[in-house]
Amino acid sequence: MEQRPNVAVLSGFGINCETETMAVFEMAGATSERVHINKLVNGELSISDYDIMAIPGGFSFGDHLGSGRLMGNRLRFGIREQVREFVKSGKPVIGICNGFQVLVKMGLLPGDEEVSLTQTASLALNDSGHYEDRWVTLEFDPSSPCIWTKGLERMRVPVRHGEGKFVTDNKELLDIWSDRGQIAVRYVDPETNYPSISDEVLPYPISPNQSWRNIAGVCDQSGLVFGLMPHPEANHSTWLGATWTREDVEHGEGEGMAIFRNAVDYVLSRKR
């Protein structure tokens, strides 16, 4: 019998989406474990014992000093070499919402070949000036090396954030990331035909935060590390869809599950 990949779903200090993140990985064919960040920092557990690392959404450290900043520092300085070795060994990492903010602010995303953990981007306050809780449509870059988004075209998922505007102080990096396929997923107008990715910022609320180039998520150069502001785990069933009562839907697995299945399948393919 094929061994199920083991997923470390980080918890602690205000993370509050670990239960549903664990659930979707289990549904995708993995085993998942809630791992408090202190157990990694204190050496009680080692991230190297897991096949996938996931940083869920929430409000780590109460968003003090900016969303994801303190949790990012906890990882970058507490288990720096463990994280670098995890990525260099070819193991997938995902950050969702606050987890994406953590990965960006610790420098793992968009990242570099050396995994130097140097921050080059950030997630700023939404242009609306308030917390956004709404459904959005995402479109994926088919040329991206991202193992999490392989084969995906479009998906509807909710966003739940106050600081989701992807920015950088060096706009030339946007072209570099785009050319490498690292801008793996963007917000798109659901009324347009596929494909319709655009660099021009779409109007609110199609782009809920006015992120530069409509960026909803990015990956590193290897395609193993992926983060996004929307919540794919929140659309693990068609019953959770925003419009299913108005549509003729054959109920079953939700669109968001494809992201987690991709990662589990990737790990299994490496074990064979």
Quickly list its features.
272 residues; alpha/beta; Rossmann fold
Structure description:
The chain has 272 residues and is α/β, with parallel strands linked by helices. It has a single domain, classed as 3-Layer(aba) Sandwich (Rossmann fold), CATH 3.40.50. It is 24% helix and 20% strand. It has helices spanning 18-27, 37-41, 69-78, 80-88, 98-105, 172-179, 257-271, and strands at 6-11, 31-36, 52-55, 93-96, 122-124, 132-140, 154-161, 165-167, 185-187, 215-219, 225-228. Strands 2-1-3-4-11-10-9-6-7 form a nine-stranded mixed sheet, sandwiched between helices. A hairpin with a 5-residue loop joins strand 10 and strand 11 (225-228). The longest helix is centred in the last third of the chain and has 15 residues, at 257-271. It is globular, with a radius of gyration of 17 Å. The protein starts with 5 loop residues before the first strand and ends with a helix.
List the helices and strands and how they pair.
Blueprint: E1 6-11, H1 18-27, E2 31-36, H2 37-41, E3 52-55, H3 69-78, H4 80-88, E4 93-96, H5 98-105, E5 122-124, E6 132-140, E7 154-161, E8 165-167, H6 172-179, E9 185-187, E10 215-219, E11 225-228, H7 257-271
Parallel strand pairs: 1-2, 1-3, 3-4, 4-11
Antiparallel strand pairs: 5-8, 6-7, 6-9, 9-10, 10-11
Helix pairs in contact: 3-5
How large is the share of residues in beta strands? 15-25%
Given the C-alpha coordinates, what overall shape results? globular
**Tally of individual helices:** 7
Q: What is the CATH architecture annotation? A: 3-Layer(aba) Sandwich
Which percent range fits the helix content?
Answer: 10-25%
End-to-end gap: 12 Å
What's the rounded overall pLDDT mean? 94
The CATH topology comes to Rossmann fold
